[in-house]
Amino acid sequence: MIERVVERVFRSVAAVRDDLVAGYRAAGGRMCDSDVTAVREALIARLVRERSVAVGMGVIVAPGLLVDRPLRMEWWQADTEAAPVMLEVDLNPASVGFYDYAAAEWFTVPRRTGRRHVVGPYVDVHGTDRYLLTLTLPVLADGRFVGVAGADVPVARFETLVLRELGDLAADVVVVNVEDRVVLSTSPRWLVGDRAVLTDAPCRALDEPDWRVVVT
Amino acid sequence: MRLPAGDARRAVFAPLDDGAMRSETVVRRLGSAIALGIIVDGEQLPSELQLAASLNVSTVTLRDALSDLRARGLVATRRGRGGGSFVVASQEALTELSRGRLRELGSTDLRELGDVRAAVSGAAARLAAERASDSEIARLRETLDRLASAEGGTEQRRIEGRWFIDVAAAAQSVRLTREEIELQFELGQLLWGTERTRAELDLALAGHRRVVDAIAARDGAAARARTEEQIAAVTSGLIEAHVRLTRQGHRRADHTGSYPEAAGS
Description:
A: about 30% helix, about 25% strand, B: 2 domains, disordered C terminus, Cache domain-containing protein (chain A), WH_DNA-bd_sf (chain B), Transcriptional regulator, GntR family (chain B)
């Protein structure tokens, strides 16, 4: 179930990535601000299609890649039925509210590993100000790291989706991420966001994301 | 012209709800935003209509505020095509603005600010000790390393503000994080544009490091107690400075008097 949700969101994100790769190639590798804007329409359509799961979707460009702008993200948010809105963050490094995306785990890990990545739960401070799971994959074109494409899934929404599927199992289920943080729990003994070191309990490791499902 | 973007910017341009002294509130809010680097030197402010609407003040009030900011040298207005109001990040003007704020607040206001900070930042530190991941703890340490090597009081204050906000984020609480952003914004109005001596900065830095050590040791009680201690010291420093400035109120023009360097953050 968890893998299915993740896989579905990643499919849309991969399509967004392909759009950006196409834009990069069309620009002959010398991308500008407007080449990023060009992915907007398709991006919004994909976000609207996934809005029951994802609350945000977009691309984040590698610092220094664009010829006319140092930092750039094209990220859209769609909450419930309202029209999608573009996420505006503070990209001025000297500001107390600077959104330092190049240092964020959802950016650094896909850049370093070349693989897709799920991060969270975490507070997206200076960004969306939400409690999120963020799914990202690297955008690579002709051997160059162009940036990442990704989607945000609110932790609360993810919980609802999974709890519905779980039905009424007798045992308690706790899902923890690779940093022992509770992603999901059917019991108030473990709260989402808490650290839970549950090494002794029987568990099933998921392939992706790198989470463990513990039944207690 | 940029519109409000990011949580700190949204805090700057959020509607005012404090009725009295509205144009002064606008002045303070924009001054604080300039000091915290949220609005940058040379940046064009939104149009008077837009700004008045987003702050929920009348255009008359806004014009009063802008003319005050102009008189203080924090805003320059150009007429004609491509004209508008532009930010001037003048250090002296910011310092003068924060002195004025420190003078007009009562010591109970400063104590109250300290009380809320202790509640929010203290709770955040305790929860961060329970919940922060190793990578979040590493980030907190990195921020303090940057603080140690930051040049200039303004830059140091901004990094310190980010550190407090990051502790709240590491507590996994969106609501505490929002409260902390508001508090840092309010605190910034009192502390901006001031230099600390190296020894004072080192003292604050050592205190922050002790908090991170407690978080890393998963000792929530110590993380909270150490945070509260530091905030109490800052509050005392601010109250001392407030009393000093108020007592020498008749010598307002005297800029040579020492500012509350001991205030820390």
